[in-house]
Amino acid sequence: MRRRPWALILFAGLQAILPTLVVGVASGGRFFAFRVFVEIWTHSYGMSFPWILWILPILSGAAIFAMKRWSYFAYLTLVGVSLALNLGLSTQTHLPLFQLFNWMSISIAVIVCSYLFQPAVRQIYFNPRIRWWESKTRFKVALDAKIIIAAGEKEPCQILDISEGGAFIATRTTRQLPETIDLVFTLLSIDQKIRVKVVHRSIRDGEIRFGAQFQFAGSRQKKSLVKIIDSLRAMKCPTRDDLEPWWKDLTRWLKGSRV
Questions:
Q1: Sign of the torsion angle spanned by Cα atoms 161, 162, 165, 171
Q2: CB–CB of 211/198 below 8 Å?
Q3: How many Å from the N-terminal Cα to the C-terminal Cα in the chain?
Q4: pTM given for the model
Q5: In sequence order, what DSSP letters do the residues of 147-197 get, joined into one string?
Q6: Which residue from 14, 132, 155, 161 puts its CA 20 to 30 A from 6's CA?
Q7: Using one digit for the tens of pLDDT, what is the confidence trace for 228-240?
Q8: HSE toward the beta carbon, residue 223, CA cutoff 13 A
Q9: CA nearest neighbour of 228 among 214, 242, 211, 241
């Protein structure tokens, strides 16, 4: 799965359309005319049209969606400015319905901020290792290969999938896997011998399955592997990351969130 978390996608969209949603509902429902909203804004901040009230939430939504360390702080800054402007508007008029919709905007922004402050959510922005959607595409290959555990001693294995950064490998060796080993294989008629680091392992049906991170000897070796990966992509080789239609994924997420 290479799609961003749905909760953050929806919050980003909500943040971006918030002013349009609130003002549109209010004006469309004739609770107060859009002209009145513009007049209050002009009186408060001396602008002929409240463009900034639309631009800031759009930028805030983009910052949520980016899901990077810098965008976390950018969002807090942008939403802080938006909240200050909305609070300023609330002091300029005593129209009850205007106050209602203005505070509705403020409340939604506070809810989104509270969600982003949760440790499990915050680490998505600060820890790049858990951003699964940024990982390299893994191609299914089921390729026979060998691992060199000690000098001159080879053990058969099978590469289940491969990417630019590593591979997922299965072997039935009874020997203890060291932290680093050599992986020998031939793919698309190109011979490769790459030092790999074992980053995780498990045992399934008598097989040792482990994730291997490539440790290239130099830029030439890396370019050679990237060329292979590009060829697999051009051949439309099946991947582990094929996305189902977004609406099916969203439906499944909604059903799971209700459990």
A1: positive
A2: yes
A3: 20
A4: 0.66
A5: EEEETTEEEEEEEEEE-SSEEEEEE---SPP-SEEEEEEEETTEEEEEEEE
A6: 161
A7: 999 999 998 988 7
A8: 3
A9: 214
